């Protein structure tokens, strides 16, 4: 007897998400808008903006807009599953797995907590690509860069971030750079340093213009 699938509707959800296009959500490829009046950075164009669609105790759904060259720093999703579907533009996504501390060698000297991780992939995603998936144990850490202009993606997390239940977002950076010369082969193990996000990273907010979603 075959064991039951942990998420029997996952494949169907992937299929549905793969069909979503920017025009379905009334989005045009223009990147983030300037921060609204009354905000601490009013008038400034954020590198990233978020359009909230809906959130329940089980999942959250929204759209991230990135201006050309913007980066969402390397971060994690503790105990969470996720799907990311590019709506316009091109994203370069680096995905990593956290490795058990017991199996890791001693970390190099560092000014803060370190995490051993497996850098599994670094790929380009476009609207023609299937959704990028993450789970609690696979590809749970990722960095997202917009290349060749603005980009946007639909983001679904289940369950959503919730610091009170141990699902806070932690940011990291590579503790060591890649070896000199040719791009190193993947996958490869790396050390990550937990850190605050870069000073030039901040996320604005914009109204969602698409159809209403009822959870």
Automatic annotation (TrEMBL):
<protein>
    <submittedName>
        <fullName>2-aminoethanethiol dioxygenase</fullName>
    </submittedName>
</protein>
<dbReference type="Pfam" id="PF07847">
    <property type="entry name" value="PCO_ADO"/>
</dbReference>
<dbReference type="InterPro" id="IPR011051">
    <property type="entry name" value="RmlC_Cupin_sf"/>
</dbReference>
<dbReference type="GO" id="GO:0046872">
    <property type="term" value="F:metal ion binding"/>
</dbReference>
<dbReference type="InterPro" id="IPR014710">
    <property type="entry name" value="RmlC-like_jellyroll"/>
</dbReference>
<dbReference type="InterPro" id="IPR012864">
    <property type="entry name" value="PCO/ADO"/>
</dbReference>
<keyword id="KW-0408">Iron</keyword>
<dbReference type="GO" id="GO:0005739">
    <property type="term" value="C:mitochondrion"/>
</dbReference>
<keyword id="KW-0479">Metal-binding</keyword>
<dbReference type="GO" id="GO:0016702">
    <property type="term" value="F:oxidoreductase activity, acting on single donors with incorporation of molecular oxygen, incorporation of two atoms of oxygen"/>
</dbReference>
<keyword id="KW-0560">Oxidoreductase</keyword>
């Amino acid at each position: 007897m075959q064991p039951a699938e942990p998420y029997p509707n996952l494949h169907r959800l992937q299929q549905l998400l793969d069909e979503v296009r920017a025009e379905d959500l009334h989005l045009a490829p223009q990147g983030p808008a300037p921060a609204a009046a009354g905000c601490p950075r009013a008038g400034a164009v954020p590198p990233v903006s978020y359009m909230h669609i809906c959130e329940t105790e089980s999942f959250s759904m929204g759209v991230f807009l990135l201006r050309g060259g913007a980066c969402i720093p390397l971060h994690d999703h503790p105990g969470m599953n996720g799907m990311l579907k590019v709506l316009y533009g091109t994203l370069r996504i680096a995905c990593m797995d956290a490795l058990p501390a017991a199996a890791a060698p001693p970390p190099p000297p560092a000014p803060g907590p370190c995490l051993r991780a497996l850098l599994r992939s670094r790929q380009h995603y476009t609207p023609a690509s299937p959704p990028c998936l993450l789970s609690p144990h696979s590809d749970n850490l990722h960095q997202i860069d917009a290349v060749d202009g603005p980009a946007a993606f639909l983001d679904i997390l289940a369950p959503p971030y919730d610091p009170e239940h141990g699902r806070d977002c932690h940011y990291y950076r590579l503790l060591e750079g890649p070896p000199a010369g040719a791009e190193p082969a993947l996958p490869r193990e790396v050390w990550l340093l937990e850190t605050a996000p870069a000073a030039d990273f901040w996320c604005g907010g914009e109204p969602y213009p698409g159809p209403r979603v009822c959870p």
